[in-house]
Amino acid sequence: MPKSSKSMSVPRLIGINAVVFLLLYALIDLSYSGYRYLKDPSPDSFSVFEHPGETIKFDPIRGYYLTRTPSRIARVNFGQIEYTGSFRGNAEGFADRDDFSIKRSSADERRVAVFGDSFTAAIMEPLNSSNWPDRVEDLCQVNGSRRLELLNFSLDAAGLANWASILRSVVVKDQYELDGLVFAVAWDDLDRQFAFFDQIDSKRFLHARAPTWDIAAQPETRSQALEFLEKDPDPAHRYVLSTEEFDAFLAGNWKPRQWSFRLSELVAGVLHGGPPRRNPAEGFEPGQVLLIEQIRQLAKEHSWPIAVVYIPSREELLGSEKETNIEKSKKFSEMLGATFFDGREAFRGLSNQQIKNDWFPIDAHWNRGGSDRFADFMAAQIQGWLAASPERRATPSTPTGE
Q1: 11: domain range?
Q2: Which of 261, 246, 357, 251 is CA-nearest to residue 44?
Q3: How far is CA 23 from CA 10, 37, 93, 382, in A?
Q4: What per-residue confidence (pLDDT) applies to 327?
Q5: What is the Cα–Cα distance from 215 to 197, expressed in whole angstroms?
Q6: How far is CA 5 from the centre of its chain?
Q7: Strand 238-241 vs strand 45-50: parallel, antiparallel, or unpaired?
Q8: Does any domain span residue 136?
Q9: Are 133 and 120 in contact, with CB atoms under 8 Å apart?
Q10: pLDDT at 3
């Protein structure tokens, strides 16, 4: 009996120590959070969105439509503004500085449709700043090459389902004259079901995804979209401001007041290494395969060559094997019969500090330095790829054989 009692005391002792530790941790976190709240009631990290009410509109094809009215955004981390960017669209509702024309502007112009996410739409950049497709156009002009137009159909938070919908119901339907398609794949883009945004009211800017890969599951009306959007909880520490409040924020005269457990958030941020991200799945679900096959078939019908470029993460470039998703991107390229570009090559030979300098300190996106470096790489890749591709001089978007 004494032996049994002794053996039972070990787990009991562990349990008591665990409870004491948790209580002590809770007391420390509560005290520290209370002190920080009295000193500065704003969270350590938060995002702000300007809401003029006229910028982001739900769209059943794109996911959302960007008007010409700019709407600013900013991210604060540990008291410092990490970036100030903006949402703003062209005449077609996409994040391109130029309006799209369906037909070529001249006989020697080469035109490529680009599909990507926030890395390519570049919402983290201020108004009138160039994203990497814009810079590629400029580089090709400076180099005296044939005029190259990259039609940027990218949208923040977009991925495979949005790309297929835009290609099917905008590019093909409107009969754009093109010489090829480029898909810029980052992180979990290939696992993203149809994403859509809307500015619900003066204080809510919501984002949701369709529940399945089935095209029929995508909302067709704003009322259908609202059913999903209203269920989607507002992310923590995200604030929607009026234009006057946003100006006050930039001037240092506005800060949010919100209680939070600072120590726990700090620990969670360190463990995650930045904002939370969904880990990409290893394979493709049947619904994904159908969309990929649809993209391949549409490109084949219109004789459009395809290129897939892989956009690496900062952690991957710094040596983290678990952060890579290149094998899935290569498989996507193979399924499309595409040319594959390894975007990691744009950062080869850089020191760890140089790589860190090309990204925001905490946010998972690259900054202007990283975007420009990637653009320099892609300018050469796209020109070489197009030079090896047949010329397109047929009527706009006419399938071969018609």
Answers
A1: 1-39
A2: 261
A3: 20, 21, 53, 59
A4: 94
A5: 17
A6: 58
A7: parallel
A8: yes
A9: yes
A10: 52
| Residues 121, 4 share a domain | no
User: DSSP secondary-structure letter at 346?
Assistant: G
Q: What percent of the chain has pLDDT over 90?
A: 65
DSSP code for 359: B
Confidence of residue 6 (pLDDT cuts 50, 70, 90): low
What whole-number distance in Å separates Cα of residue 346 and Cα of residue 366? 13
Q: Which token pair is 119?
A: 């890395």
CA torsion angle for 162, 310, 235, 156 (degrees, to 10)? -50
Helix then strand count (H, E) for the chain reads 12, 13
| Interhelix angle 286-301/326-336, nearest 10 degrees | 50
Contacts of 309 (CB under 8 A, 6+ apart): 182, 183, 184, 185, 340, 341, 342, 343, 378, 381
Decide if 349 is inside a domain. Answer: yes
Mean pLDDT for 14-41 is 78
Q: Does the pLDDT of residue 300 top 70, yes or no? A: yes
Beta strands in 265-385 (DSSP E): 306-311, 339-342
Q: Return the higher-pLDDT residue of 137 and 231.
A: 137
State whether 25 and 110 are in the same domain: no
Residue 286 lies in a domain: yes
How many separate domains does the chain show?
2
Which helix (H) or strand (E) element contains residue 401? none
Cα–Cα distance, 102 to 104 (Å, whole number): 7
CA distances for 239 relative to 49, 71, 171, 231, 243, angstroms: 6, 13, 35, 18, 12
- Specify the pLDDT at position 368: 95
Same structural domain, 296 and 153: yes
Q: Tell me: do 148 and 17 sit in the same domain.
A: no
Instruction: Please check whether residues 206 and 172 belong to one and the same domain.
Output: yes
Residue 366 lies in a domain: yes
Give the count of alpha carbons within 13 A of 246, CB side only: 22
Structure tokens at 252: 């240092």
Q: Which residue bears the tokens 């900054």? A: 367
Whichever domain contains 189, its CATH number is 3.40.50.1110
CA–CA dist 365, 123 (Å, integer): 10
Asked whether residue 393 carries a pLDDT value surpassing 90, the answer given is: no
